[in-house]
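Hi W.,

Here's what went into the run:
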Amino acid sequence: MKLSMMAAPHLRSEDNVRKIMLDVLIALSPAAVWAVVSFGLKALALILVCTLGAEALEFFVMRFVRQKKSFRPDLSGSVTGLLLALNLSVSVEWWQALIGVFVAIVIAKAVFGGLGKNFFNPALVGRVFLLISFPVQMTTWFNPFDMQTTATPMAILKQGAPRVFSLQEMFLGTIPGSIGEVSALLLLLGFGWLLLRKRVAPFIPIAYVGTVAIMASIFYAVNPGFGSPLYHIFGGGLMLGALFMATDMVTSPMSIKGHIIFGIGCGAVTMIIRLFGGYPEGVSFAILVMNAFVPLIDMGTKPKIFGKPKKVKSNA
Amino acid sequence: MRLPTFRGGVHPPEKKELSQDSQLSVLPPPERVYVFLANHAGVPAKPVVSIGDRVRTGQLIAEAGGFISANLHSPLTGEVKEIAKYYHPTLAKPDDAIVIDRTGEDEWDLLQPAKPFDQFLPEEIVQRVKSAGIVGLGGAMFPTSVKLSPPKDKKIDLLVINGAECEPYLTIDYRFMLERSEGVVRGILALMRALNVEEAIVGIEDNKPKAIEKMKEAVRSTSIQVKTLRTKYPQGAEKQLIFALTKRKVPSGGLPLDVGVVVDNIGTAFSVYEAVELGRPLVERGVTITGEGIKKPVNVVSRIGIMADELIRYAGGAQESVERAIFGGPMMGMTVPKTDVPTVKGTSGITLLLRSKPTEEFPCIRCGKCTFVCPMNLQPFLLNLYGTNRLYDIQVENGLLDCIECGSCSYACPAKIDLVKNFKLHKKVYRSLKGGAKK
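Here's what came out:
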C-alpha cells in the first residue's frame, strides 16, 4: 500500500473539456450531414478540410510552436474548423477555406494564448477574414440540390426583390445559404442535444432571437419591405449564429444576466446591419462586436457573493 | 413542493451504501493512544500530567490553553508514557501528543454531578461542556462552549443541528441518529437550555429517510423540529445549512451568531448529552471506516487518539491498491502519508480510496460550471486567475476569504483545475503578506 498525498476534493466529476467539445461536434452533425446532402461532395470536402485541418493545425501549434509536450488533442480545433466550414458558401475553394482555418486557429486563437484565452470567436474571425479576402466566392450562393446560382433570402431582402421563400423552406433548409446555416430544424435539434447534456444554457439564443424578433416586428409593421420577423429568424445565419457561435463559452459572458445582455446586444447589432448596413447579413459581425464587450459585461454582472450586502461593489 | 436547499452545490456519488447498514460497534479500549495537545481549533492545551503518571479514563490530562482552546482527558486507564511529536492528521506535520499506555480496565473519572439536563442552570451546562473538552465533532473542532457563550449584544434565538452529513461515504451521524437518537435529542435539549432558546431545527437530507423517521419520533414530545432537505453537497456547511432551513443569510465574514443561530452537529449533541447526564468527558467518538479500499466498511465508536491503522484492521483491513488514505470524507478530508496516524476529536471518518485514473488538465474554457456550483456565489475561475497572477488584494475583494473550501468548484470543473487547492494556498499567502505588513 503506497499512499499518495493529494489535495481535496478527492472526487472529481466525469466531465472534461474534450467531452464537451465532442458534444458540440455531435450537436453540429445533423446540420453537417444536411450540408452534404443538399450541397453535395464539395460541401463534404469543405467540412473535412476545415475540421481536420483545424485539428491538425492546433496540434502542430501546441506541440511544436508553443512546445506543450503533454498536449493531447482536445477537439476544440475540430469545433472551430467545423463551425467555420458550416459558415461557408459551397462556392469557396478548399485552399481558401484552409486560409480561413489558419486565421481562426493561429491568429484568432493561438496568438491570444490558445484555448480559453481568445476574446473573439475564432471561427467567425476566420469567416470574416474570408468574406473580406474572397468576397466573390463568399457571397456566391447556390440553390441546394439543383445547384443553380441564386441569392439568399437575406440578399433578396436587401435588393428589395419580392419574397420567394416560404417559411417551411427556410425552416427545413431547402434554401441557398452557407452550407450549415440553412436548416433551422436540424440546428435546433443539435442545440437540443447540448441542452439535454447540460452543456449550454438557453439564455443567449433566447435573448438573441427574441431581440431580432422584436426589432423585425417593429420595422415590419412600419414597412413590410424590411422583412417579416420569421424571415429574419429563419432566412439567414441567425440560427447557426445564435445557437452555436454566440454560445461559445470562451467568448461569451458567465452569468445568466450577462447572457441576456450579450444576446440582446447581438440581436440589436445584427438587425442594425441587416436593416441599415451594407451587408445583407449581420450575424458574424454582431457576435464579434459583442465578443469585445464580454469583459465589460462580466464586470457589470458579477454575481453577488452570498451574505454580502447589496450595494457594496468592488472596482476590480 | 420541492424540499428546501441552498443555491449552487454538486451531486458527487454518495457512496453511503458501503457503510450505512453497519451498526455502531463500540471498540474495546486500545493498548495505546496518542492525544494531541492540538485536539481542537485555537491554542493547544497545556499538559497537567507528567511522564509516568497513572491516569484514569476521563481524567484531565491537559487544560485549555486560552479562550479558544479545550480540555483534554485521558481516553484510557493507564500510564503516561511520553509527550512526543507524532504526525498530526489535520495540521499535516508532527505535533505534540500525550501518549498513554493502557494498564487495565476502564476506571472512570467522571464529572460531577451527573443528572438530567433540566436540573442544571444554563451556565452550568456551558461550564460542563467546557470542562468536558467538547469541540465540534463535524471536523472543524471549534470549542463548543465558546459557541454557547455568545457576546452580550448577539441575541441567539435558534439552535440548528446539522444532520445533513453531506460528505460522501460518511455515515457516522446517520448511525447516531438511528441508534442513539434519544441521547442526541437530550443533548440538543441541553444545548437549547444552555443557549436559552425555544427553537431547534435538525436538518437532515432526504437521502436518509430512516434517520428522518427515527429523529421525528425521538423529538415528538419536545419543541425540536426535524426538517427534510433536498440532498446536495455541501448542505452541511453552516452558512448553507442555516440558509436552507431558515432563509437567513450569514453575512460575509460573519458567524452564524450574527443571524441569531448556533450550529452544532449530531455527534457533538450526543457528546453534550454524555457530558451533562453521564458526566463523561469527550474521550471517544464515532468514526466511519469506509471507502473502496476498505474490505469491510464499518461504523465504530472508538477512543480519541487510536491509531487509524487499528481502525482499518478492525474494518477487515485495506485493499492492496489503495492510493489515498483520507481523514474525513473525500470532498474536504485530508490525505495522510501513512496509516499509523492517530485520530483526533474531529475525525469523523477514515476513507481509503483506490487508485484512480490520473486526471488530465485542460485550459479553462470559461464554461461557468464553477460559478454555477459555488455555494458562496463566487467566481472561482476568476479568483484562480487573479491568484495565479498574484493579485491577492483583488482576489480578496472578489471574495477569496468567503470561500468555504467545500471543493464543489474543483469537483465540477471540466478542465480539472485544482481550484480549491489553489485558493487554500492563496489564502495562506495573503494572510502571511498581511501579517508581514502589520509588523
